[in-house]
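$ ./design --mode recover --in tokens.txt
reading tokens...
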């Protein structure tokens, strides 16, 4: 397992394409082996798409970098088969605290309800996340990983993209039907194509100090405005594994980024927080100026941009890596359908439109957080401080406080892939078309399980809420036709606790899920015969109060641009 001082290295191997008389044509090439590139490459390979992943380096990232991984990201990693090690290693947390000077203003809980498999967040250094993803990637038969392979050129042709890839053995051409650029904020692919990102750069600087120490702080997110140990600025504290603590110090625009990284500048700031007698070591230090920006379009012909290569936000709110993983989650199933000829290329336009919408939402939240944390005028500062003082006793003011609205999945309400609710089908729940599916405890075949883990992957999922008046086996026989559509649907029959199953074997593609605590029914506002259709990325795309197979087929066609 890697450490910050000794990152894991991967062996370079000469690619067979170096010696081929005619370049092979791969379905997909992914550029960049960070969390986003690894996620989308694993997802594609797991769905049966032959994929090549190239990266200019042969190591994991240095420094902790992204550390806050959200519940939705962990649910994606569940589906990829690599979440358990991350959760075991990571620091779980749901609670945050906001301070003004040395006084606690209020406490918030990001996941106050029970009945979820995953916490609101774990804190885990990015190099650990990359290591677990890389370990999973190396288990995939459909995935080639090519290290020390730098993209130096790109040309789009009819039917394919040709990359020029520089390696220790020289340059070779690499062809793919589609290319995913997940190569970071300084994207080489973007530069090769003469493209750019646009947005706003904030005139402030922050110091990140990863400090190794034994401390009694709880596993919570603590944010100080104007603390006595760092006056007129802000400070953020997070716990990481291995007794490492992330401390962010606001420095101001005039700070010298080179000088501020020196130990003689960092150590006094840390001691001011911890006390002069505190024993600690500096593990990693960085100074950053942040921007909120994105490309105008995430799709350019056969090249699709994801993660930091497509968009960037300030680190407050943990929106960078988490939104990038959601890019990958959105893209993989669509690209698989297009590559396999089950959907037209127009489906990839919805990757761009949906994730551009999500990026705009993240940029809006990130910009507002940055403006609140770093007010640029006396009036803004007065408003902020008054809001913080009110927030101690007035819950309405807490909604205005913004120390970084923390990452949640974007609800794709306006997606063209959604089937709008029928006028007569009134629902009262968060599972609207465009929302990411919720979780709940269930039983499957008599064993404890989680609802969300029965959904997603390479297929659409139908959720049918059983009518207690109907025999379950008869219900399954009636629903079996959905599993044999041109794009088969996996069907979950949700039954109430104690429903007699009479030992009947279910048809292939149908799973009976026992809602042991009634949480599934509550979270979906279900009645007997209610039916939901989920996309492979577990977003709701349609729902009805009564099942009509013709409507399901039409919604399936709409969700794949086959209508």
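writing sequence...
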């Amino acid at each position: 397992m890697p450490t910050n001082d000794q990152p894991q290295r991967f062996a370079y191997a000469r690619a067979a394409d170096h010696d081929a008389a005619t370049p092979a044509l791969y379905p997909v090439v992914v550029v960049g082996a960070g969390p986003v590139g690894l996620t989308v490459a694993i997802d594609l390979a797991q769905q049966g798409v032959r994929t090549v992943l190239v990266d200019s380096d042969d190591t994991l990232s240095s420094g902790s970098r992204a550390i806050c991984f959200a519940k939705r990201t962990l649910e994606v990693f569940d589906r990829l088969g690599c979440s358990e090690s991350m959760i075991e290693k990571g620091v779980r947390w749901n609670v945050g605290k906001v301070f003004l000077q040395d006084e606690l203003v209020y406490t918030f809980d990001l996941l106050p309800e029970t009945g979820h498999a995953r916490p609101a967040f774990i804190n885990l250094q990015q190099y650990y996340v990359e290591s677990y993803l890389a370990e999973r990637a190396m288990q995939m038969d459909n995935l080639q990983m090519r290290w020390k392979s730098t993209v130096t050129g790109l040309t789009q042709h009819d039917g394919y993209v040709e990359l020029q890839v520089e390696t220790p053995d020289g340059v070779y051409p690499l062809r793919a039907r589609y290319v995913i650029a997940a190569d970071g904020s300084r994207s080489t692919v973007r530069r090769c194509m003469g493209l750019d990102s646009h947005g706003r750069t904030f005139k402030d600087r922050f110091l990140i100090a990863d400090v190794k120490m034994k401390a009694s702080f709880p596993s919570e997110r603590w944010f100080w405005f104007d603390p006595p140990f760092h006056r007129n600025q802000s400070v953020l504290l997070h716990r990481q594994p291995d007794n490492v603590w992330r401390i962010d110090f606001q420095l101001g625009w005039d700070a010298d980024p080179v000088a501020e990284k020196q130990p003689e500048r960092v150590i006094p700031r840390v001691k001011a927080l911890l006390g002069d007698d505190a024993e600690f070591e500096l593990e990693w230090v960085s100074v950053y100026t942040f921007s909120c920006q994105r490309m105008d379009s995430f799709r350019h012909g056969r090249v699709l941009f994801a993660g930091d290569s497509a968009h960037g936000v300030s680190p407050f709110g943990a929106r960078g890596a988490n939104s990038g993983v959601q890019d990958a989650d959105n893209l993989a199933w669509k690209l698989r359908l297009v590559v396999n000829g089950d959907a037209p290329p127009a489906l990839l336009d919805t990757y761009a439109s949906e994730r551009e919408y999500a990026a705009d939402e993240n940029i809006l939240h990130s910009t507002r957080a940055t403006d609140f944390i770093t007010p640029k005028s006396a009036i803004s500062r007065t408003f902020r401080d008054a809001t913080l003082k009110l927030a101690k006793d007035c819950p309405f003011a807490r909604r205005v406080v913004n120390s970084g609205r923390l990452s949640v999945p974007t609800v794709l309400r306006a997606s063209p892939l959604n089937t709008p609710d029928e006028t007569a089908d009134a629902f009262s729940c968060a599972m609207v078309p465009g929302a990411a599916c919720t979780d709940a405890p269930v039983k499957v075949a008599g064993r404890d399980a989680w609802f969300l883990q029965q959904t997603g992957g390479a297929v659409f999922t139908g959720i049918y809420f059983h009518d207690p008046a109907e025999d379950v086996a008869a219900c399954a026989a009636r629903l079996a036709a959905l599993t044999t559509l041109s794009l088969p649907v996996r069907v979950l029959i949700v039954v109430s606790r104690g429903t007699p199953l009479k030992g009947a074997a279910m048809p292939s593609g149908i799973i009976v899920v026992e809602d042991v605590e009634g949480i599934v029914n509550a979270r979906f506002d279900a009645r007997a015969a209610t039916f939901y259709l989920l996309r492979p990325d577990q977003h709701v795309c349609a729902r009805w109060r009564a099942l009509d197979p013709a409507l399901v087929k039409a919604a399936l066609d709409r969700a794949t641009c086959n209508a």
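exit 0
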